[in-house]
C-alpha cells in the first residue's frame, strides 16, 4: 500500500493537524507509481493535467495505522525543519508496518 499524509501547523508553528490520508492503489503488476500515474500528457508528451483514478481519499486505515502515520508525519515535519505544511508518502506492508 502507498499512503500519502499531510500535516498543517497551527498559529504557533506547531504541526498539529493531520489531513485525511490518501491511498494510491498498487498491484503486483504495478507495484510502483510511475509518471503516467501522476500526470496526463498529450501526444507530444506535454503535460495536460493530473492523471485520474487509482486513488481514494480518505484512505481506509484503521486507528492503529492512522496513529503510526500521524506520528511519523509529525516527527518527519519537525526533523526536516518544515514550515506551515508538509506531505509524506508511506509504503505500508501487508502487516500494517
Secondary structure elements and pairings:
Elements: E1 2-9, E2 15-18, E3 22-24, H1 35-38, E4 39-41, E5 47-50, E6 55-56, H2 63-79, E7 85-91
Antiparallel strand pairs: 1-2, 1-3, 1-7, 3-6, 4-5
Could you give a short description of this structure?
The chain has about 100 residues and is of the alpha+beta class. The chain is built from two helices and seven strands. The strands form two sheets. Strands 1, 2, 3, 6 and 7 form a five-stranded antiparallel β-sheet that branches.
Largest sheet data: 5 strands, antiparallel
- Enumerate how many helices there are, as a single number: 2
Low-confidence parts lasting 5 or more residues at pLDDT below 50? Answer: none
**Which structural class do the helices and strands define?**
alpha+beta
Mean pLDDT: 92
Taken from the alpha-carbon principal axes, the silhouette is: globular
| Strand segment count | 7
- What is the helix content? 10-25%
Distance between the termini: 10 Å
Beta-strand content: 25-35%
Q: How would you spell out the order of helices and strands?
A: EEEHEEEHE
The quaternary state of the protein chains shown equals single chain
For the CA atoms, what is the radius of gyration?
15 Å
